Amino acid sequence: MARHDVLIAGAGPTGLVLALWLTRQGLSVRIVDRGEGVAATSRAMVVHARTLELYRQLDLAEQVIADGRPNPALNLWARGRRRVRVSFGSAGADLTPFPFVLVYPQDRHERLLAARLEAMGVRVERKTELVGFEDRGDHVAARLHGPDGVEVTEAVSWLAGCDGAHSTVRHGTGTGFEGGTYPRVFYVADVEVSGPAVNGEVNVAFQGSDFVLLFATGDEGQGRLIGTVRDDRAGAEERLGFDDVSHVAIGSLGLRIRKVNWFSTYRVHHRVTGHFRRGRVFLLGDAAHVHSPAGGQGMNTGIGDAVNLAWKLAAVRRGEAPDALLGSYEAERMAFARTLVATTDRAFTLATAEGTLADLVRTRVVPVLTGTAFRLAPLREMMFRLVSQTLVNYRGGPLSAGRAGQVEGGDRLPWVREMDNHEPLNDIAWQVHVYGPGRAPGCGTGATGRLPLHVFDWGPGPARAGLAQDAAYLVRPDSHVALADAEGSPEALRGYLGARGITFAG
Fold first, then answer.
1. Model confidence over 307-341: pLDDT tens digits?
2. Cα–Cα distances in angstroms (integers) from residue 282 to residues 136, 246, 313, in the given order
3. What is the DSSP letter of 238?
4. Among 2.120.10.10, 2.70.70.10, 3.50.50.60, 3.90.740.10, what is the CATH number of 4-39+47-65+104-176+274-344?
5. Which of 388, 417, 426, 438 could be 49's S-S partner, Cβ–Cβ 3.0 to 4.6 Å?
6. How far is residue 17's CA from residue 305's CA, in Å, rounded to a whole number?
7. Residue 163 neighbours by CB under 8 Å, 6+ apart
8. CB 501 within 8 A of CB 321
């Protein structure tokens, strides 16, 4: 009955990545967006290491890095002086192939994703809006209003709402969007700038209750500024310009703004929807959760939603797993979204709070604590893992089981630099990893048929990454460990898959 497996409403990064992963796995996709094209300007700037790892599975990472600008370090300024420099490379060199923050404006990002999707045979349908839908049990009837003004109804197997904070899909499911809005007005501006902080790195400055964040976006002093509007100007957002922003922190960095190429203001929200799934309808990205820009987590989290859902839809569509597998999408991603909103809320509140005590904490306490933490290798790595999203895990979730070494079911598969054990993940398939010979010959036997088996030599690299010798790690298509079995037992693998109804073609 359904013409397409999945209808995706919204062609931002989340929707485009969902379409790419589904198409790569053989599903039929239709993606629509009510806009005329990619917005010429954007707020999302940062692509983190975990997203680049997922892009590597699509053979996208190298092109994204080439088009973007790796920022190798973060500089923390307070009261006109640089207090701390945090090198991402020294913190993440043993953790990921991508130990940096990539600055890549969302408009350019979307164009690349859309072009790659079109090369795979799927074109974004612009000026086409989802105006309503009905979940009829065995399919979703979606009403679409096209550029010609004609409304049509199409049957699809599943509907994915990637249509932003004002999501039509979310409203249609009737689920809530609990949270609130921060009182201050923020701005984002693309500028041509000079000064001591224009060093090709990320710079954040605190001066009193004001702050500014500067990303290097290109050569010759091109940058992106994020900061706050002066409180006395915040009531007339539609008429605000760059002269209305607070220049206190900008001045403390010694920045000289030669030209403002683009400027926009916005308010920041923190909300999470009550459900990520209703029957055959799913919510992803800003349609499911919005939060402060602290740490540049928003777009990366939406992309994580897309990858988590895509392989599960593909497994159910191919008959390799029951519908119950789709329930794990909400269980895994909602838990992460709630934790993220709470964490970024605390960080954002600290960054924007007013008063003498808050100013003291920002300008005196935070730099000292950050500098101390960065000098200690375990804390330095933890800071990088947290910001880069390589720390994201699904421990305790319905698909996670076992422990071997320091790795638990639900963890992202640790990267081992010496042998690049992430290279086999490009297959986007279930697979078994063994480090040392162990009982490797039998570890690939699945519930029905065989799983790809990758055996790596044991050595200091796997040990440093927390892996256990001769253990078996059952790895999901999204590169998270499903089962970590210290005994390397084929029976444990078969038991895990059988209990969840997961099978593979022989």
1. 999 999 999 999 999 999 999 999 999 998 888 77
2. 15, 40, 11
3. G
4. 3.50.50.60
5. 388
6. 10
7. 9, 10, 15, 130, 169, 287
8. yes
Q: Token match 């640089």: residue?
A: 82
Least confident of 339-343, 358-362, 444-448: 444-448
Q: Cα(88)–Cα(85) distance, rounded to whole angstroms? A: 10
Amino acid (one-letter) located at 397: G
Architecture of the domain defined by 401-499:
3-Layer(aba) Sandwich (3.40)
- Spell out the domain ranges in the chain: 4-39+47-65+104-176+274-344, 69-103+180-271+355-377, 401-499
Structure tokens at 192: 């041509």
Residue 405 in contact with residue 468, Cβ under 8 Å? yes
Q: What is the distance, to the nearest Å, from the Cα of residue 196 to the centroid of all Cα atoms in its chain?
A: 31
Q: Which residue has the tokens 């699945």?
A: 446
Contact 272, 165 (CB under 8 A): no
The interaxial angle of helices 49-56 and 298-317, nearest 10 deg, is 30
Measured CA to CA in angstroms, residue 425 lies from 80, 334, 462 at distances of 46, 25, 17
Query: Is residue 332 within 8 Å of residue 20, measured between CB atoms?
Result: no
